[in-house]
Amino acid sequence: MTTLVIIIITSIAFGMISYHFLNKWEKKVKREENKEYQERLFKRYKDPIVLKIDWTPLNGFYLKYKLYHRGPQKIEIKPALTTIITAGFFILTSLLFSYLSYLIVLKKAYLFLLFFGLPSLGAFIVGIVFLFKSFKLFTFDKRTGFYWKGRIKKKFIALQEIHAIQINSGTAKTPSTRSNLRNLGGPRSELNLILHDGRRIRGIDYMGKRSGELADAIAQFLNIPVWNAIM
Questions:
Q1: 163-208, pLDDT tens digit by residue?
Q2: 3-state DSSP call for residue 61?
Q3: CA–CA gap between residue 123 and residue 133 (Å, rounded)
Q4: Are 216 and 224 within 8 A, CB to CB?
């Protein structure tokens, strides 16, 4: 028993120490990566603000987006139909597993309940998250002079404060387990707003290869440049 406790304590301590050093190493790699981006992109765009901003991924919830409305005074961007389809798939899957769990309860085979009950709950939570995300809306409105995120107008940003659109890779270069898990699912990119004072505002976390088209549409609407770190 004493040997088992020592093994458990040693394993936990080793895991904590490994996590600490891995986290420290990742931060160092990210700093070097960010400096590399700043130097390379400053040569391309000749704007001193490029040297102020962060070019490492923010790692958000990546989805496919589309232009929902585009006019001379207003553009709106929202998730593509695939988001709702994905939400429906997971919710239906959760209902199927729930039904199987109900049959298991009737048979009093409670041991097998874990194999269907937990997946049911997990699929339902994932489905609800995708359903919630499908209602996201990004609005740029020249009539009000503001940008806001969401269907309820809050956290306004004046359009005149926006300096550029940043296209940043959503794929981390650090080869850790955490980064590798984030990189699953295909090409990812981030469309962030850069303000005149150098602040970076989280924008659209895009899943797919056509983020450039979306960034160009926003840039043309606001008459600002696109700073593309992926090219």
A1: 999 988 766 554 444 444 444 556 788 889 999 998 998 888 887 7
A2: coil
A3: 15
A4: no
Report how far residue 174's alpha carbon sits from residue 180's, in angstroms, rounded to the nearest whole number: 8
Q: What single-letter amino acid sits at 24?
A: K
Helix runs in 46-80, H state only? none
Check: pTM over 0.85? Answer yes or no. Answer: no
Contact indicator for 203, 191 with CB cutoff of 8 Å = yes
Task: List the end-to-end C-alpha distance of the chain, in Å, as a whole number.
Answer: 58
Exposed e or buried b for every residue in 79-96, given b needs 16+ CB within 10 A? beeebeebbeebbebbee
Highest averaged pLDDT of the listed ranges 59-68, 151-160, 161-170, 175-184:
161-170
User: What type of residue is 142?
Assistant: K
